[in-house]
Fold this sequence. Notes:
By secondary structure, the protein is α/β, with parallel strands linked by helices. The chain is built from 17 helices and 21 strands.
Amino acid sequence: xxxxxxxxxxxxxxxxxxxxxxxxxxxxxxxxxxxxxxxxxxxxxxxxxxxxxxxxxxxxxxxxxxxxxxxxxxxxxxxxxxxxxxxxxxxxxxxxxxxxxxxxxxxxxxxxxxxxxxxxxxxxxxxxxxxxxxxxxxxxxxxxxxxxxxxxxxxxxxxxxxxxxxxxxxxxxxxxxxxxxxxxxxxxxxxxxxxxxxxxxxxxxxxxxxxxxxxxxxxxxxxxxxxxxxxxxxxxxxxxxxxxxxxxxxxxxxxxxxxxxxxxxxxxxxxxxxxxxxxxxxxxxxxxxxxxxxxxxxxxxxxxxxxxxxxxxxxxxxxxxxxxxxxxxxxxxxxxxxxxxxxxxxxxxxxxxxxxxxxxxxxxxxxxxxxxxxxxxxxxxxxxxxxxxxxxxxxxxxxxxxxxxxxxxxxxxxxxxxxxxxxxxxxxxxxxxxxxxxxxxxxxxxxxxxxxxxxxxxxxxxxxxxxxxxxxxxxxxxxxxxxxxxxxxxxx
Length: 492
Ligand code: NAD
């Protein structure tokens, strides 16, 4: 089994604890790699390295264009290693190789885009209302950024943080999920090869309470960029508040895929299936609620069942597999618990409803694609994030009702609308409380378009021009041009 080491100050290091833990392949349920068990001492070392790199001439005195060049060079190295990194991610978290290859081939664009933005961060000259002063603003990096990421799309979600953070001139300590750390540790080799000075990016692994908490509360960490569950997010937010630290929170969702009676039903059926069963439902933007207009409800459900039944389960490394395992054993149990809860609540299980017993699923943590009808908006299955291949179908009668149901959860990450009416598309996109609204498509993301949550799905934006602002602070500089200091007892 490969034994990995962390990255601190450009060096490969062993954890202070001298301990490693096993990373499990969800398809085989067997350990396949050893990950360093970091702790507070490693956090101190990593933050010290990042802080020292932040103040070093080698980083601070780089021109913004050169910083952009480094990011673009990193993009090329990622592209060259995309296949290898995708295979590591699939082995570590069980997501489909087709999905992970797609992500890895796309990730370089985040580094190219933000590399391009690096030298377009500009201040303003303000025609100030006072005589004899010149006032301008500088957009400055914050310092050491703590990036904390989940297991479902490890490198993609890290890139959404690293690319803008580095483009803005910060340094980073990155803590990947304990369930999927291997790709991050291998990815760490690329920073030096791209020419980043040592310590600009540090990677430490371990558990949330042993590495995440000391990292967030560390005196020299200036900003937290977190993606994960909303309960963890709430706790992380409280820890960050103690140090008055800016934070971005990308949290979970209970997104509604809303199908109107005027929709192209062939497309809508595919959209609803892709919203929930692609990625085995383990995506923050999973369309885990389907709101279906009552007049087409029964026909739509039949079509949905017909398509979902064809889903091929099996080895996620096999390009033909369409639904892979659940990533972790605790998550597998949680998904099965929610299926039981839904049944107890009176929802009608129309497909799946338990562990997958298919031969091709081996000993992995597989759950059958599951569809519930007869769901009411107040049920837990319609309110809480399952993060698995479980769809709750709710009928509606009017646009107003669809909006009320869609907005009737604590979350607000994304929503899908299926309609041929432009008026309806515009009305729905205005009234839906979600950071992303897709019309006649689902699960589209881009490095160019801002992504983030409303309500309990978090705040702050990743990707797009908005993202770089999350990693900058504004300084206002006043320079006297009069040459005489005015009355010291009066505000100028
Ligand atoms: P999680 O909240 O359990 O863990 C996320 C990260 O936080 C991990 O690195 C973990 O080690 C760390 N962590 C855990 N406890 C911590 C603590 N006390 N202090 C500091 N760090 C701590 O989430 P997960 O189970 O890995 O990921 C799934 C969740 O992430 C889902 O809820 C999903 O919706 C959400 N998610 C959101 C987005 C988004 O962009 N909005 C994207 C992907 C996943």
